[in-house]
Design brief:
single chain; 12 helices; 12-stranded mixed β-sheet; alpha/beta; metal-binding; about 20% strand; oxidoreductase; about 350 residues; Isopropylmalate Dehydrogenase; metal ion binding; 2 domains
């Protein structure tokens, strides 16, 4: 690997906004970031995105991760040779686009597993398109799990350096509450602490968000804090870990921003999402924890309704790329902790 780490960047669905936000990001920060980005795609997809965005940059096709010196105004593209020069309709579910999205993920992941790159940065895919292409996976997470041989993955949100974890995610609130118990809390607290250490917080301070208003008011508004959360926190604290809580959710995220903690464990999907995205919608990115490789990602969809119009906001992709550049220096830690 070159002295300056390389990140493999996938555009996601080539007829969504992924190509636009990718070329905007690399045109803006690709030459100055602490890691270099190589886009994994068909070069024609990037050339079309450059034209749509009105950028004065060159797309250079490469066939090796051992790159020549980077030039200002050049975006390197590792050619996956799926679409060739085909121009697919913007914003339409298409199996050909799905195949290109899947192939890019496969190529980028293999490069990371082979240590040709320090990590991957992923753009948004369209689930219908990848299913039309024959993929059996629900999305990125499941695909990456199979490609890396991992069965347990979690999500870490990063927003301006602050980290948010999720005790439960894609469940109804009622089902999420049913999943929460003492043993489950011990497991997710320890996962969050491990991730904080892996990603640079050597002596992590974690706060556990309460579930109920005012943290339950000693059982007046619910007993989950008494029955499940407090016993779990006490067990983990007994090992010497710096864990605080349960902290009422209406104050814990403010305290995170004030620097009292390095991370917060939110208890359900929207509890953490609302806090992060209200603070900085375009700056909130997702890191997949548990993979033996670094993977940062945008946390939005393909926005088919504006694809191809040059209107897409690249802030989240830029944040994902810059955080990937920062975290690329922990690639060995990630491999050591989560590798087989």
């Amino acid at each position: 690997m070159t002295e300056r780490p390389t990140l493999a960047v996938t555009v996601g669905d080539p007829v969504g906004i992924g190509p636009e936000i990718t070329v905007r990001t690399l045109a803006e920060v690709g030459a100055s970031a602490s890691a270099r980005g190589v886009v994994v795609a068909d070069p024609a997809v990037l050339r079309r995105a450059v034209q749509v965005c009105g950028l004065d940059v060159e797309i250079r096709t490469v066939s090796s991760w051992d790159l020549p010196p980077e030039q200002e105004g050049v975006i390197d593209c590792y050619d996956i040779d799926v679409l060739g020069e085909q121009e697919l309709a913007w914003g339409v579910v298409d199996a050909r686009a799905g195949r290109a999205a899947v192939r890019a993920i496969e190529v980028a992941t293999k490069a990371a597993m082979d240590r040709d790159v320090a990590g991957i940065v992923t753009g948004p895919i369209n689930k219908e398109a990848i299913w039309a292409a024959g993929s059996k996976h629900l999305g990125h997470t499941e695909m990456l799990g199979e490609l890396t041989g991992v069965t347990r993955q979690t999500t870490m949100f990063v927003v301006r350096g602050k980290k948010i974890f999720f005790g439960t995610r894609h469940l109804s609130l009622r089902k999420a509450l049913d999943q929460i118990n003492e043993e489950q809390q011990v497991a997710v607290i320890n996962e969050a602490l491990t991730a904080l250490r892996v990603f640079g917080d050597d002596e992590p301070r974690l706060a556990v968000a309460a579930i109920n208003p005012h943290g339950g008011e000693n059982g007046a508004f619910g007993d989950e804090e008494i029955v499940h959360l407090k016993p779990a926190i006490e067990r983990v604290r007994a090992t010497g870990a710096d864990v605080t809580g349960p902290v009422p959710a209406d104050s814990v995220f403010h305290q995170l921003l004030q620097g009292r903690y390095d991370g917060v464990l939110s208890q359900y999907h929207d509890q953490g999402h609302i806090a992060a995205k209200t603070f900085d919608f375009h700056g909130t990115i997702s890191v997949t924890v548990g993979l033996p490789i670094l993977r940062t990602s945008v946390d939005h969809g393909t926005a088919f309704d504006i694809a191809g119009k040059g209107l897409a906001e690249e802030g989240t992709m830029k944040s994902a790329f810059l955080h990937g550049a920062e975290f690329s220096h922990f690639a060995d830690r990630i491999r050591a902790e989560y590798g087989s």
